[in-house]
Structures are given as C-alpha cells and as structure tokens.
Design brief:
two-stranded antiparallel sheet, 16 helices, signal, 14 strands, ten-stranded mixed sheet, alpha/beta, LRR_dom_sf, 437 residues
Length: 437
C-alpha cells in the first residue's frame, strides 16, 4: 500500500471504526514499519511472539528461518511423528534445521522490556493472534508470562500514547480466554496487568466461566487474585507485579495482599505460598489470615519485612521480638517443612541494613566499611537462624534473605544451623567484598 493511500484511509477508518479500533489498527503497522526501516530488503516470516520468547535456537537460526518460504508454517505445524528421542525434531524442507522440542515451553506477552517498546493492548492482541494460529504453541506451552504496560501516562512517548487505546479491546478479552483455554499443558502463569484494568479481565473471564485446570504455579499481580479460583489444581502461589505490589491500595482501601491470601481458600492442593508483605510488612493479622486460608501448605515465603520497614539510623536498636512472635504463630502449620524469610535487616533484630547510599562504600575505606556492614548482617542472620531453630525445630530447611541455612541434627536431638561464613568469617568477607571491588 502506498503511503499516500494509507494516509487517506485514516480519517475514513476512524469514522467507521471509532477511535479505539483505529488505534489498534494503526498499532498493527508499528512492527512491520520498524522492520522495513531497519532492513527494507528483508521481511521476516517468523511470528513476533516466537522472536519475543528469545529461545536460543531461534536466535541462532533466525536468518535461516527467514529465508524459508513460510517460517510460521514450518515452526507451528504439528510435531513430526518420526521425531527421535533426544529432544530434537527433524523437519523436512527447512534447510536441515532441527526444531528443539522445548521451543514453545516459554511464551511471553510483554511490550515494555529491554529492546521492546510497543503500545500495550495492540501488542497483546497481535501476539495472541499469532499464538492462536500456532497449534504447536497452544499444545506445548508450559509457561506463559503476561506483562502489559499501558502507555497513557505523562512520561510515555507521544507516538505510543497515540496508538494506545484507553481500555483493552473486546476482541482482546475474548482472545485471551480462547488462548488460555486452549493451552492444555500450561503449568505456570505469570499475570501482570495493572490494577486499574485487571477487573475488566476478571469480568470477561468469569462471564465465560474460565477454568485453567493445568495451572500449578500462579503469580498474579495487584488485584488479580480472581485467577486463583480459576486454577483448581494450583500447587504454588506467589504474588507477581514486581514493585507495583507496593504502589497503593484499591479505591476502597482494600489490601490486595489480603485478597490474594483469602482467595487461596479455594485451593486445597496448594503446597507453597510466598508473598511480599507490602506497605505495612507482615503484620500478625496478615499472618493469621495465611494460617486460616491455607493451613495445609508445606512451604511459606514471607518476603518484604516483618512489620513496617525501619529506615537506616546507624544505631542497633536491639531485638524487637518480631521474629519470635511470627514464629510462634507459624506453629499452627502442621505440614510446614520450609520457611523463607526476608533479609536480617527486615527481621526486627536491631540490624537495619547499613546506609543505602553507595557513595559511602567507595574507595579503600569504603570497602572496609562495607565488609563491616556485611559482617553485621551475617551476624544478624545467625541470630535469626538460632531463633528459627529454637522455635520451629521440625523445619527441613529455611532461608534468610535468600541464604540457605545448613541444618544438622545430632544424636541427642540438638539442632544447629550453620552458614556459608561459619568458621571462616574473614575469608568469606574477602570473597564477598574483594580488594579490587
């Protein structure tokens, strides 16, 4: 289509379809135009959703795939019944290319990560359309990660704001449901739709009675707790949304962390639960809700902080008793074998993490100071570990700030927790903060 004719079509199309539909329509030209500008002599036939997944085999063979008459048909046709058992499928007509069996294990819909800048709703609509045409993707996908950033803020690029509809198109809501229902082997769903719009998906999914029986691992963002009840075989539940988990509450002041916990009542098969405590950290009332909603869990992750995070003061305030109070409550979990706790600076043990400004750690004196802060953190971790062992001796494993304790039990029943620095603190500190750091 010539550029002049394309421009003349815009006002006519806007009149017929409405602004939102036109925005979606215009956005569909973004990636083809970008490809044309970057290389006007090559038109890729590899679906964009496959490129977005960044499978190593695709990245290594992209040029060969683009020379095929129809890369989409080559990649998306059904599995070769004569495939061998080494994890590789042999396909004819592909210049000797062999397609890995795991090529569609991971799929994503993301418009705002490194190297990608597209309008949110139109990108999701296009990628879902591609996935819906690819039978192998629907059949083989095991993990689906959805992250949609809507470009309607004052810091968004103007051209992206022009292409961004204010709300998700109705076609997108339908297509999301169709694709998710068709992914019969999907085990992990990571769902990051902003809190202002996720209720639209909730209404659409509930109206079609969406059920996702294959999902075992779910990571919903703020206010997307409704997905929990749609996954009857859920085994692992973790909050998603990244830093957005800390950004505000619902308009009626409801806490979406509390709503996620309470939604877990509908998941009798749940074994693992982990969540950030959010603004106020892990309060006794929030922990009480966890015990009430999912008493059967075997693994618990309390991330964020125990109680509200305390700013750095430079003074060790001593043990507040928060950790022991939390552990006393956790004795209500009869099946708990693993506990993940936040860093020692967030346990109320007196150590508050050291200065947050990196300038104080520059230079030779700064490295010495950083080793001192690191040592204090390790010592606080040891203190926290001793409290855990004393109060929950039946645990098979636990971590503090991501560091796993080594638990040993003697014949007389004594339990010890040791750490990577136990008996070698000076050597460990030099490994963590080397001379040339």
């Amino acid at each position: 289509m010539k550029l002049g004719a394309f421009i003349l079509l815009i006002p006519t199309t806007m009149a017929l379809l409405g602004v939102s539909s036109v925005q979606t329509w215009l956005a569909s030209f973004q990636q083809p135009l970008k490809d044309l500008i970057e290389n006007p002599f090559r038109r890729s036939t590899v679906p964009q959703f496959i490129l977005d997944a960044r499978h190593p085999w695709i990245l290594a063979n992209q040029r060969k795939l683009e020379r095929l008459p129809n890369a989409e048909a080559f990649l998306c046709s059904g599995p070769d019944p004569e495939s061998n058992e080494t994890g590789i499928e042999t396909k004819n007509g592909g210049e000797g290319l062999e397609i890995p069996l795991d090529i569609f294990d991971y799929l994503e819909i993301d418009n705002n990560r490194a190297g990608i800048s597209r309008p949110g709703w139109p990108n999701a609509l296009e990628r879902l359309g591609e996935i819906n045409r690819c039978q192998r993707a629907l059949t083989q996908a095991k993990t689906m990660e959805v992250g949609i950033y809507v470009h309607d803020g004052k810091y968004s690029d103007q051209y992206l704001k022009i292409l961004e509809p204010p709300k998700p198109p109705e076609q997108l809501l339908t297509l999301f449901g169709d694709v998710l229902e068709s992914m019969m082997n999907l085990e992990t769903l990571k769902w990051d739709i902003r809190k202002e719009d996720t209720h639209i998906f909730e209404e659409a999914f509930k109206s079609r009675n969406l059920t996702l029986p294959s999902i075992k691992h779910l990571e919903p963002g703020p206010s997307s707790h409704y997905l929990v009840g749609m996954c009857p075989n859920l085994e692992r539940l973790k909050n998603g949304g990244g830093f957005m988990w800390y950004h505000g509450y619902m308009p009626d002041n409801r806490d979406w962390g509390l709503m996620l916990i309470q939604a877990a009542v509908s998941t009798p098969k749940l074994k693992r639960f982990s969540m950030s405590g959010g603004h106020s950290g892990w309060t006794p009332s929030l922990i009480s809700e966890v015990i009430k909603s999912m008493p059967q869990i075997e693994s618990l992750g309390l991330f964020g902080s125990l109680g509200r995070e305390i700013d750095y003061t430079g003074v060790n305030t001593g043990d507040t008793g928060r950790l022991k109070a939390v552990l006393d409550m956790l004795t209500g979990f009869e099946n708990l074998t693993h506990l993940a706790l936040p860093p020692s600076s967030s346990l109320g043990l007196g150590f508050n993490g050291g200065p947050g400004c990196g300038n104080v750690y520059f230079g030779k004196e700064g490295r010495i100071y950083l080793r001192q802060v690191t040592k204090e953190g390790a010592e606080a971790t040891e203190e926290g570990g001793n409290i855990v062992v004393a109060n929950l001796p039946h645990l098979a494993s636990f971590t503090i700030g991501g560091t796993k304790a080594n638990i040993t039990r003697t014949e007389d029943g004594t339990i010890h927790a040791t750490w990577p620095w136990t008996g070698r603190m000076d050597e460990w500190l030099m490994e963590e903060v080397p001379v040339g750091f």
